[in-house]
Structure formats: C-alpha cells, structure tokens
Design a protein that fits this description.
six-stranded parallel beta sheet, 6 helices, elongated, two-stranded antiparallel ribbon, alpha/beta, about 230 residues
Length: about 230
Amino acid sequence: MKKILKLIIVSSVLIFLLSIFFVAAINLFVIISTSAKQYSLERFDSNQTHQAAEVPILVLGAGIIDNQTPSKILAARLDAAIALAKRYPEKKIIMSGDHKDAYYDEVSVMKKYATQHGIASERIYLDHAGYSTYDSMYRIKNVLHQQQVIIVTQGYHLSRALMLANGMNLDAVGIQAKEVNSTRMKRETREILARIKDFMVTYWRYSPPAVEEAYEFDLRQSGDWTDEKDSLLD
C-alpha cells in the first residue's frame, strides 16, 4: 500500500512539473519567436516594408466604460496608434473590437477617441466583429483581404497576435503600446493560458469557434461608411 501511495505521489509531482514545463516552454516560444517583429514608435522608422500607405494600422479592442470611454489599457493602445497615424498621415486605421449589441460598442468608442485626438474620421474604419484576438487576425486576412498590417497593442498581448498572424500567412509587425501597471499582473496571468490556446490553434490545428464572416468593407472607400454596423450587411 505504501509503495502504491508513493508511486501516486511521485507520478503526481512529475505530471505537475511537466505541466509547468509545458506552459513555460510554449509561452517562451511565443514571446521569443515574435520579438523581432515588435517595434516601439521610435524604432518603427527603421522598418521599410510596412511604411507604405496601403499597409493599415490595426488597433485591437479592449474594455470600455459605460459604452462611452475607453479603459486605460485601450486608451494606451489608441494613443500609440494615433501617434503612428500622425507620423504616417496616408495610413488608414482599422479599429477591431467587440460590438455584438448596441449596449457594448468598443469600436465606435475607439473611433470617437481617435477623432477627438486629431485623426480624420474618414481614415478610421470599424471592424465590428473583432470579438477576440483570433477573430481580429482572421478577419483582417480573410474578410478584409489585407496581406500586410501593423498591429497596435501592449507588448504582453502583441506576441500572441503576431503568432496568430504568422500562422495565417499575414505579414504583420507590431507597435508596443504603453503598459498599464494597475491591472498588469491579472492580464499577464490570463495571457499565459491564452497563448497556449492560440498556440494550439496555430501549430496543432485546434479548431476555434467559427469567425463572423459578415461586415466586410473596402479600404478604398471612406472609413465613415463603416460607422453603422448594419449598413455593412447591404
């Protein structure tokens, strides 16, 4: 009986240690394998392949307050995108976020913030169905038909977004937005598991939930055409 109990304990410890190793190894791989494609605003000038006007800026959504104001983390992403857009005034911006119903509309809040900070409304396009990071990456490639993109989000999140883009053969680089320390530990802990899930999607062909294929738009038109979600169904 003692031998059996000892075997159970040893096996449990080994499984636990292997699990920790598995989690750490995948997270390190995701971070290291995408690090060369991450830029600060200052360093982006050295990137020649994504400076062309036709390569859009993609801002990934996050929480909003009372359906009116971006959270601190989202405002930091928007600030980085606005600074980049002012540096490259021919570039267009795609706001990708959650707008499943009228009472929660990340993308309209994002556009309002950007226009209030000096970006012309017609330069800003709304992807109303960016419900997750995977959805945003899938839609930019397969629904909006872009081959290159500049992703703007915090560094902890950028690694996963770039991994997903690479897995979809989307030529992407990332701009690191300012970190928000007040909720950083909670977000980065959650991101550890999110990286594993999307690693499985990218490399092990795990099938995620189906992505919304509607709400397509053309970047050759004015971004104001995308303001109303229902109009994109016509």
